[in-house]
Amino acid sequence: MDLTTVIGLAVCFILVIGGVVAGGQGVAFIDFQSMLIVLGGTSGALIVSNPPERIKSFMKILKMAFTGGSPDLVSLVQTIVSFAEKARREGLLALEADASELDNEFLKRSIQLVVDGTDPELVKAILDTEIGILESRHSSNKYFFDSMAELAPAFGMLGTLIGLITMLGNLSNPDALGPGMAVALVTTFYGSLIANGFALPIGKKLAVRSSQEVLSMELMVEGVLAIQAGENPRIVEEKLKVFLPPKQRHDLEEKAAEAKGGA
C-alpha cells in the first residue's frame, strides 16, 4: 500500500470539505442536480473517449496508484553484480538456475535470453521494445485520468451555464434565482475538486510509477548486456551505479563494505 497516495487524497478532501463546513454553509454545497451534470457528464464522456478494455480495467489502473512502491534499485544492482560474478567464474549457462528463481519477470527473461546465446544486439532490441510497449501502456493509463481532469471542469462550466440560463429565465421569480445561482457555482466547484483533488494527482502518481519502473528496466538491460559481454563485475557495478541517486549509491557502498567485512 502506498500511504502517500492515501494520505495525500485524504488530506486534500478532508481539509477542503472541512473548510466548506467551517464556513457554516456546508449544506449549500450539496446539490443533486450539479452532481448529475458533473459526474454523469464526465463519466459519459470518458466512456466515449476510451476503449472498452480501459473502462473495464479502471479499478485495476486506479489500484496501481495506491499499491506498490519505488523499485529497490540497490538490491537490483546487487543481484546483477552477483550474476556477473557467477558468470565470470562458471560461465553464462550457470545463471539459468538462479534466473528461474527470480521474482522479477523482466530480469528473468533478460537473463534467459543471454543464457540461450541470443545475439547481444537482438537482446537489446527485444528488451528495448518491451520497455517501449510498457511506456506506451502506462501513458494510455495516465491519459485516462488526464482526460478526467480536462472533462470534469468542462462539465462544471456547462453546469454554470445551465444555472445561469435557469436564473436568467426566471428573473421575474425571485425564488428561482437562488437555486439557479447554486447550480451555476456548485457545478464549477465539483468539477474543479474532481480534477485537482483526484484526477490530476492520480495521473501524476501513475507517471512517477512509470518513470521509476522504466528506469529499473533500463538498469537491468545495461547490466545484462554487460554480463553478456563478460565485463568485470566491478565495472558492471560502476556502470549500474550511475542509475542510482547519491543516497542509494552510498547505501550500496555501505552494503558492499559490510559484505566484505563479514566475508
Question: Which features characterize this protein?
Answer:
single chain; 263 residues; mainly alpha; 0% strand
Written overview of the protein:
By secondary structure, the protein is mainly α. It contains 11 helices and no strands. The protein is elongated.
Topology record:
Layout: H1 3-22, H2 32-49, H3 52-56, H4 58-66, H5 73-90, H6 95-100, H7 105-115, H8 120-168, H9 174-228, H10 233-241, H11 246-262
Helix pairs in contact: 1-9, 2-8, 2-9, 5-9, 5-10, 5-11, 7-9, 8-9, 9-10
Please describe the biggest sheet, giving its number of strands, its sense, and whether it closes into a barrel. none
Structural class estimated from helices and strands: mainly alpha
Number of helices: 11
Q: Which outline best applies?
A: elongated
What percent of residues are in strands? under 5%
What is the arithmetic mean of pLDDT? 88
Number of strands: 0
C-alpha Rg (nearest Å): 26 Å
> Unreliable segments (pLDDT under 50, ≥5 consecutive)?
none
Secondary-structure element order, N to C: HHHHHHHHHHH
Straight-line N-to-C gap: 36 Å
Can you describe this structure in just a few lines?
With 263 residues, the chain is mainly alpha-helical. The chain has helices at residues 3-22, 32-49, 52-56, 58-66, 73-90, 95-100, 105-115, 120-168, 174-228, 233-241, 246-262.
